[in-house]
Amino acid sequence: MSGLFIVFEGIDGSGKTGLCKRVHEALTAEGRTTIVTQEPTSDEIGSLIRKDGIPDITPAAEALLFTADRAVHTQRIARWLEEGVTVLCDRYFASTAAYQSAAAGRDPAFTEWLLQMNLPVIRMPDLTFLLDLDAEEGEERVNGRGAASRYEELAYQREVRKAYLDLAERFDFKIIAADRGRDEVLEEVLQLIRSVF
Ligand code: TMP
């Protein structure tokens, strides 16, 4: 039987990386073979975009790189799923559709291009969790309380959040309120996963 493909999305500081780890621990303890993976990957293309500062990069060029990384990663994900492994993926196509769309002012034609480029090279997840959080709170979690990031960065994360919420409606993501305690968030997510198994 094919494994479940579960994706975690959210703005910076939304807590998805820690949540992924805790879901992995919980499912493993229940006897399910589960793997955690993330994007950008640490493969050749992923490493290229993880490094800060490709000079003069544009949202379109970034989107092409993130998507190329994803196209290669998807082959590996498909193999794990065929082996019956449940795959927990920290970011997937919605990250490009949200972040690069926000970087391009959420222009509808550009957003559509991002999706049309991604849909043929991805595997549609069985379940996508959107950890929804206020940009201010995400910023505090990233920088530590009190330390403000640049105004543009905060405005950007707000736009990313809006883009995510649009995608959630279109692709039926499960919106999880991330402004709660870790245990509460974990329990809600585990219940939703168990209802799909
Ligand atoms: P991380 O903080 O989850 O490791 O992700 C690294 C950064 O890369 C984060 O700010 C989001 C960004 N990103 C995109 O802009 N587009 C993408 O397609 C992906 C996968 C990540």
Query: Helical amount among residues, as a percent range?
Result: 55-70%
Query: Which topology does CATH recognise?
Result: Rossmann fold
How many extended strands?
A: 5
CATH superfamily: P-loop containing nucleotide triphosphate hydrolases
* Name given to the CATH architecture: 3-Layer(aba) Sandwich
Largest sheet: 5 strands, parallel
Lateral arrangement of strands in the main beta sheet: 2-3-1-4-5
Give the termini separation.
11 Å
Low-confidence stretches: none
Shape: globular
Taking all Cα atoms into account, the compactness measure Rg is 16 Å
Structural notes for this entry:
This protein has 197 residues and is an alpha/beta fold. The chain has one domain: P-loop containing nucleotide triphosphate hydrolases (Rossmann fold), CATH 3.40.50. The protein contains eight helices and five strands. The chain has a five-stranded parallel sheet, sandwiched between helices. The relative contact order is 0.20. The mean pLDDT is 94. The structure holds thymidine-5'-phosphate. Residues 12, 39-40, 66, 91, 95-96, 99-100 line the site of thymidine-5'-phosphate.
Write the layout of secondary structure elements.
Elements: E1 5-10, H1 16-29, E2 34-38, H2 44-50, H3 59-82, E3 86-90, H4 93-103, H5 108-118, E4 127-132, H6 135-143, H7 151-171, E5 174-177, H8 182-196
Parallel strand pairs: 1-3, 1-4, 2-3, 4-5
The site of thymidine-5'-phosphate (TMP) has 9 residues, from helix 4.
Quickly list its features.
197 residues, alpha/beta, Rossmann fold, 8 helices, 5 strands, globular, binds thymidine-5'-phosphate
